């Protein structure tokens, strides 16, 4: 099987798998494994999409992609059948790769600026409390709790949340948000958000982004339930979700993701996937990613 066909088959496979994986409930049992699977699936999908265009553009050379690309860039004699159409397809592949890198860089710069401004505002309006070290309290009647990620991550709760929740429920909420900060879930979400911004009309990209956002919240729920009672977290989540307050741009709120699905998962208290199953799934993801890399790099 030549490179073009191999990359195209892998691209179709990744595309077909997106919706079933997004609907799968077994992924909820081990959110961190699910997040890694989605990351590898997205990387494979992007590499194959770029690789197909590059492979088609270089197909007249009849050689592997790195060698053919080196010949093309090195000014070697063009083979018979190498037309302007091949050049257009080849340049399109490079433009796709450049666009993805640019979208990722712009999303990072944009979110860093937003968070910097938000931190400046918090420095003026938020306060600290000795009973909640490392947490900023925002005097606001609505029930709000969110994490502002970054190298200096900050967890913010409103005075309304402190009044509406018991101390144990507050601790569960803080454990949830601290997981976002500790595991840098903002970096997990960033590539999917960048791809969604670059390709807003492709519904599958939105499906991937929404599935990962839900798993990120489930992962934070999972860690919070280790420190606090699952019932406390479920009660706190229900109360906070009633305010329907959207967290500010650049932040990750406790009510992000499908709240009903998360509550169902907490109430069900399913056991994690067996270790062997998780290892096999991750091994399959590694094999999937290695497919386009074997043609694009080797």
TrEMBL record:
This is M48 family metalloprotease. It comes from the Bacteria. Its cofactor is Zn(2+). Pfam families: Peptidase_M48. It comes from Actinophytocola gossypii. The keyword DNA repair does not apply. Keywords: Hydrolase, Membrane, Metal-binding, Metalloprotease, Protease, Transmembrane, Transmembrane helix, Zinc. GO terms for molecular function: metallopeptidase activity. InterPro entries: Beta-lactam_resp_regulator (IPR052173), Peptidase_M48 (IPR001915). Binds 1 zinc ion per subunit. The keyword Transmembrane applies. Belongs to the peptidase M48 family. The chain crosses the membrane at residues 6-22, 34-61, 81-109, 275-297. Residues 117-196 form the Peptidase M48 domain.
């Amino acid at each position: 099987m030549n490179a073009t066909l191999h990359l195209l088959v892998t691209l179709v496979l990744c595309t077909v798998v997106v919706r079933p994986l997004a609907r799968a409930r077994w992924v909820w049992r081990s959110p961190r494994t699910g997040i890694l699977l989605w990351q590898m699936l997205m990387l494979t999908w992007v590499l194959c999409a770029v690789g197909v265009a590059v492979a088609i553009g270089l197909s007249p050379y009849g050689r592997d992609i790195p060698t053919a690309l080196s010949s093309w860039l090195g000014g070697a004699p063009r083979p018979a059948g190498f037309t302007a159409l091949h050049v257009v397809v080849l340049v399109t592949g490079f433009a796709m790769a450049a666009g993805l890198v640019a979208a990722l860089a712009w999303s990072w710069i944009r979110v860093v600026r937003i968070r910097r401004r938000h931190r400046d505002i918090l420095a003026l309006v938020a306060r600290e409390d000795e009973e909640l070290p490392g947490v900023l309290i925002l005097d606001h009647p609505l029930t709000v709790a969110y994490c502002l990620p970054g190298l200096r991550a900050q967890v913010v709760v409103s005075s309304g949340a402190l009044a509406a929740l018991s101390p144990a429920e507050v601790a569960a909420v803080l454990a949830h948000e601290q997981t976002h900060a500790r595991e840098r879930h903002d970096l997990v979400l960033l590539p999917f958000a960048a791809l969604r911004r670059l390709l807003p009309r492709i519904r599958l990209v939105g499906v991937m982004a929404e599935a990962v956002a839900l798993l990120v919240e489930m992962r934070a729920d999972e860690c919070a339930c280790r420190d606090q009672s699952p019932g406390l977290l479920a009660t706190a989540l229900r109360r906070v979700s009633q305010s329907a307050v959207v967290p500010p741009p650049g932040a990750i709120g406790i009510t992000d993701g499908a709240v009903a699905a998360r509550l169902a998962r907490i109430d069900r208290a399913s056991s994690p996937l067996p270790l062997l199953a998780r290892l096999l799934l991750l091994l399959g993801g590694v094999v999937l990613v290695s497919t386009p890399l074997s043609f694009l790099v080797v």
